[in-house]
Amino acid sequence: MSKIIKQILVNLFIITALIGIIVSLSPMKTENPDKLIENAIKTNMLSEGEIVFHEKYRHGKWRYDYVIMKYKDEYAYFTTDEYPSNPYDDYNIHDIMTLHFDNGLCAFYSLMDSKGNNGKIIVVSQNDEIEKVQLVHYNAQGSRTGYEIETVRKNGTNVFISQDKSEDQTSFGYLKNYTVEGYDKNGNLIAVNKCANQVRYEMGLYK
Amino acid sequence: MKRKQNDFDVDYRFNVWAGSAVKLIKFKDDREKVKRELIDHMIDARDAYREAGFDPYEADTKAIENMGDPNLIANELSKIYRPFWGRLWKITRTLAVLAIIYSVISLHHLFTETNIFYDYNEYFEPMHENVSERIVADISSPDKVKINGYTITIPRAIVVEHEYDDKKTVWFTMQLDNINPYLGNPRIKEEIYARDDKGKVFEPRIMYANDYEDDLAGNPVRVSPFRTYYNMWLSGLDSDVKEVTFYYDRFGEYFEIKLPLGGDENA
Questions:
Q1: Which own/partner contact pairs does A71-75 have at CB distance under 8 Å and 24+ positions apart?
Q2: Strand order across the beta sheet in which B201-202 lies
Q3: Interface probe, candidates B89, B150, B185, chain A, greatest A C-beta count within 10 A
Q4: B206 with B217: CB under 8 angstroms?
Q5: Can you name the residues that pair with B237 across neighbouring β-strands?
Q6: CA distance B11 to B14
Q7: Which terminus of chain B faces fewer neighbouring Cβ atoms within 10 Å, N or C?
Q8: Count of beta carbons in the 10 Å neighbourhood of residue A173
């Protein structure tokens, strides 16, 4: 190999190495979604936990991941997303939060929607007997208004997600007036989370 | 063997002949190198002729004649020495230099520290005038916690005493260092809570809470792959509290950092 080709290879190696170093120092800009989830687990010190729920949404070029982690009786939730159209903000971790339970139920609002415009209510249950979860709307006087949000249970998990048709009703401002009700397989009401009246974002924060 | 030459040792005609022979080589660095080699050949031949008894001028002439027609040689050399590799080398060399410069600038930025702590003059002086507060201590925590690849410290804190309610607020900077850049930008601030030496617990502030009194709050103010700073504050401390401990206890991970509040040293 001639000397000049060796020099070219050395230069290319230097360039590649330096670009590699610079890129690797910006992990948030370069990770793929799976790597980003791994990164979120590490940077949130959740490594001792296990993933109990992982939902992927794909909409064209946009990719979203929703993850619930569990460690003993502690739960954490976060989302990751990818916007390939924006080179400066390709990957992100959002909505990292600890889930707080009231009567074994925790409900929270998430932008679980491929377009990012509407959200869904996610309900996590610590009670295996709960087969169905419903969100019931109360007015300021404490009376049921008749508005109810049905949820769908994700197979093999204790995670319930509001249905698409209820998206308009479960937007950020409405959630605070809902109570979460958990029913067993016989339709008996066995758990109620009323904390939705106090906080919007995550029901059950205040016990 | 390579010998040292200068222009006075070499017949002017050697230079002319070699210059003609390399004129079709497009890459300048190659052209100079080949010209030097050709002249060396002619010098070797000239020396041999001189040893054989030819006079210097005749020896030079015969050495040039032995090399042949410079135009024919030029055509052959132009086929051998293509400019592509030379130019590629120059381009890559330039890119490598630019990459090194860019890296130095980038790395310098990564490690550069500026004053990330609250600006006393800007932040506190107006506050003193309006709400009767005064700084009673400028301190740091002696603790250094290592957990999960992070080294966590409190390099600076100030204690502010309120005259209007006899309470204290601690403003502090929490620093998280990590060697592994993939651990950059840790998000554990919201899970840190505090307890004072009288047993009062200060919960982390939660978004959209109704009451912001007596809690622990803050924001990340500087994030780099190797270091993250949170500027935080703890409000609602009783005036006689001497020490605060910050805790993280979640998902099987635990650490605590003590912060003695001092109070004797006036800032």
A1: A71/A46, A71/B251, A71/B252, A72/B252, A73/A126, A74/A49, A74/A98, A74/B250, A74/B251, A75/A99, A75/A101, A75/A106, A75/A124
A2: B201-202, B192-196, B243-250, B253-260
A3: B89
A4: no
A5: B168
A6: 5
A7: N
A8: 9
Q: In what order do the strands lie in the sheet with A62-71?
A: A50-59, A62-71, A74-82, A91-99
Query: In chain B, positions 202-241, which contact chain A (CB-CB < 8 Å)?
Result: 206-210, 225
**pTM for the full predicted model:** 0.68
> Which amino acid is present at B33?
K
* Pair of tokens at residue B75: 């055509």
Which positions in chain B touch A25 (Cβ < 8 Å)?
Answer: 106, 110, 181, 184, 225
Does the structure show a pLDDT above 80 at B6?
no
Q: What pLDDT was estimated at residue A115?
A: 53
Q: Over 50: is that where the pLDDT of A197 sits?
A: no
d(CA B240, CA B197) in angstroms, rounded, equals 10
Nearest-angstrom CA–CA distance, A158 and A67: 13
Across chain A, where does the E strand assignment appear? 50-59, 62-71, 74-82, 91-99, 105-110, 120-125, 132-138, 144-153, 159-162, 178-183, 189-193, 202-203
Residue B206 phi, psi dihedral angles, 5° rounding: -115, 140
Q: How many CB atoms lie within 10 A of CB B100?
A: 13
* Coil, strand or helix at B134: strand
Query: Which pLDDT value is given to residue A93?
Result: 77
B65-105 per-position pLDDT tens digit: 989 999 998 988 888 887 777 778 888 888 888 888 877 77
- CA distances to A122, A192, B59 from A152, rounded to whole Å, are 10, 17, 101
Contact assessment for residue A85 and residue A94, using Cβ atoms and an 8 Å cutoff: no
